[in-house]
Amino acid sequence: GENVEQHPSTLSVQEGDSAVIKCTYSDSASNYFPWYKQELGKRPQLIIDIRSNVGEKKDQRIAVTLNKTAKHFSLHITETQPEDSAVYFCAAGDSWGKLQFGAGTQVVVTP
Amino acid sequence: DTGVSQDPRHKITKRGQNVTFRCDPISEHNRLYWYRQTLGQGPEFLTYFQNEAQLEKSRLLSDRFSAERPKGSFSTLEIQRTEQGDSAMYLCASTDGNQPQHFGDGTRLSIL
Q1: Distance between CA B92 and CA B63 in Å, rounded?
Q2: Gap between the Cα atoms of B33 and B46, Å rounded
Q3: Is residue B22 less than 8 Å (CB to CB) from chain A?
Q4: Chain B contact set for A99 (CB, 8 A)
């Protein structure tokens, strides 16, 4: 199948702490792994992505790691801020760009 | 803003009616995708186009659903004989194949 599993479903962190979200995928043809942030009532916004030939990518406070052998990838947010509160989705994509999404993680950053 | 645009933003209709949504992708993006998102879930792939060719349809897309992209630019998604279970946010995304998918704001469909 083409399942993407995402954990945890909810994550509450204190401002300034780190947040980690983990995803696993099953389709060996997946070679592209984006992460989207979605605020209530708004469109999903890409925050970072990684391709299968790369193990890690970082953009300021956000980093993503990929273990292709184990078929899992993770999102790391450091020094969390209240504006990081949102639902985060991982996805796994094939060569045609078709994305299979995880169920989402509700992140709440408390001041 | 030259992002992906979708119309209408909201659609309320009675069960059994037909509805049609429109998506205008980012200019020059040759790939266009439709997803459906229900409350508390991630977007689910429905179908996608490479230019005007519809290349894949999810099994989620029953025969009541049809999508077109006649000139390889905008796309329409039609749902015939709507059912309660069709209530969802319908999202459109586009890419040129090398860039990430950019999503529109979606069309929220409510079936009475």
Answers
A1: 19
A2: 8
A3: no
A4: 33, 35, 43, 45, 101
